[in-house]
Backbone:
């Protein structure tokens, strides 16, 4: 649909105040109504912007209007449709600003509602039933018309499913994500736990149909009918098309939230973060200004963060009671800031879901690290460091698999060292073990084995000799050789710890 198509609809009684032919030929991707002074972050390229001009008063200076129109241009708006009801007419200063910034301006009379314009756009964009032959559809015309109206009203997916399947007797049908998260279900459908939903989606039971859309492996949507299909395949495809249009519009709205989340996590990753800026970023991302918070960092083995962002976002959506924002960093990490319930255990919930997520893309590793609670915004940078360390530990423990590690899991020396970068671990091990670390000879391998057993037996000569089937004197000799080669005294606790850590770092 193009901007000029709306001007041809006599029922809307629209008036073009300014707009060149090239601007009127622009494609329309959607509609957004706003009366914010600076709506840029809420707009998507190609959208029609409906405004009642409540944000403007006759006494305002021209700069206020210029900022508003400049925001539309920066966001790539297709046109501005300004209502006449508030001020009786569209002010000349707005016409001048639109001309300067090259934004098509259309006046909307008082008798034309914004809802009528929205419906006109989406009826045209999502089917315009009068222009398509009836035989093209399997859904009855009255159902198609009602569904188009529900889409224009931004109805919930439950309402769409209910109306779409009502003429079929209301079968048991679900709208599920690839991880089993329930988005909607028909009134006859009981709640379906996520793990059971995944089994049904992947087990070939019932009838499932993937919804078309720009989605990743973790958040794809699926229509799922239990048991024998109660709807002909063409009907299901028609219903799936309606759900796809709903998903498309939802994704456009959520894109603004993603940009806000990217800005938030980038700010937290900055060494010196201004408190006022951080408070503003939290607010823009939809998070409360007061804690507690928890930070989760995820990676999927690549340099791009999109897959990890998709996985982490989908996982956290399984816990709708905790507000969160997930953004990506150039390092390839996905970072989530979760407004956490102190009594909830984010790690446990993620750990239960992580194998399901990994099953959606088994060829790629999937790791996550979870921080401790941060009581206030100024603790988010420390929480990010904790989560990154836990992520490194998860990678070290299962480099090609899927693993969630919390900073609370780092309760042993081995788990703590797992978060140290591999290059640092290797350098430490080589330095402490000395020649033993670089040994290729049988004698040095024998000494390493003796050292491992001696430390495992808590420095007991007798138990070490028994475990290795050696005489105690032989154990004494080998330990002396180890002390000479490493420069460590194995009668000292700190030196024992050094060597134990070096062995763990190999």
Residues:
């Amino acid at each position: 649909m193009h901007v000029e198509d709306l001007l041809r609809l006599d029922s809307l009684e629209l008036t073009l105040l300014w707009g060149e032919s090239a601007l009127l030929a622009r494609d329309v991707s959607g509609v957004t109504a706003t009366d914010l002074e600076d709506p840029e972050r809420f707009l998507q390229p190609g959208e029609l912007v409906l405004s009642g001009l409540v944000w403007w008063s006759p006494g305002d200076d021209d700069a206020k209007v210029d900022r508003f129109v400049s925001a539309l241009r920066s966001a790539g708006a297709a046109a501005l449709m300004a209502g006449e009801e508030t001020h009786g007419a569209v002010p000349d200063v707005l016409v001048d600003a639109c001309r300067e910034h090259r934004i098509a301006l259309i006046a909307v009379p008082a008798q034309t509602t914004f809802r009528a314009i929205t419906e006109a756009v989406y009826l045209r964009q999502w089917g315009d039933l009068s222009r398509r032959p009836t035989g093209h559809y399997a859904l009855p015309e009255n159902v198609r018309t009602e569904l188009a109206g529900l889409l224009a009203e931004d109805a919930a997916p439950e309402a769409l499913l209910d109306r779409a399947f009502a003429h079929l007797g209301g079968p048991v049908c679900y709208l599920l994500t690839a991880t089993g998260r329930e988005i909607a279900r028909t009134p006859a459908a009981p709640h379906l736990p996520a793990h059971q939903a995944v089994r049904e989606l992947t087990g070939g039971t019932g009838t499932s149909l993937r919804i078309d859309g720009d989605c990743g492996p973790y958040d794809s949507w699926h229509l799922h009918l239990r048991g024998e299909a109660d709807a002909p395949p063409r009907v299901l495809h028609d219903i799936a098309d309606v759900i796809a249009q709903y998903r498309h519009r939802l994704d456009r709205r959520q894109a603004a939230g993603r940009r806000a989340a990217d800005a938030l996590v980038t700010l937290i990753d900055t060494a010196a973060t201004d408190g006022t800026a951080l408070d503003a970023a939290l607010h823009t991302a939809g998070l409360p200004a007061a804690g507690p918070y928890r930070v989760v960092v995820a990676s999927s083995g690549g340099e791009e963060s999109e897959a990890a962002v998709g996985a982490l976002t989908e996982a956290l959506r399984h816990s709708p009671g905790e507000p969160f924002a997930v953004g990506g960093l150039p390092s390839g990490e996905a970072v989530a800031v979760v407004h956490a319930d102190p009594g909830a255990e984010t790690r446990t919930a993620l750990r239960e879901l992580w194998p399901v997520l990994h099953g959606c893309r088994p060829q790629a590793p999937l790791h996550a690290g979870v921080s401790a609670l941060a009581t206030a915004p100024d603790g988010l940078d420390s929480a990010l460091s904790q989560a990154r360390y836990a992520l490194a530990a998860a990678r070290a423990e299962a480099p090609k698999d899927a693993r969630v590690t919390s900073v609370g899991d780092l309760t042993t020396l081995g788990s703590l060292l797992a978060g140290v970068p591999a290059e640092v671990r290797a350098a430490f091990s080589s330095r402490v073990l000395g020649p033993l670390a670089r040994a290729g000879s049988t004698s040095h391998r024998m000494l390493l084995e003796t050292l491992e057993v001696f430390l495992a037996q808590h420095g007991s000569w007798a138990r070490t000799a028994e475990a290795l089937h050696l005489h105690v004197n032989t154990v004494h000799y080998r330990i002396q050789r180890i002390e000479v080669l490493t420069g460590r005294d194995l009668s000292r606790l700190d030196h024992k710890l050094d060597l134990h850590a070096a062995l763990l770092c190999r």
Remarks:
- The domain at 257-413 is CATH 3.30.70.270 (Alpha-Beta Plaits).
- The chain has four domains: 3-123, 135-249, 257-413, 422-504.
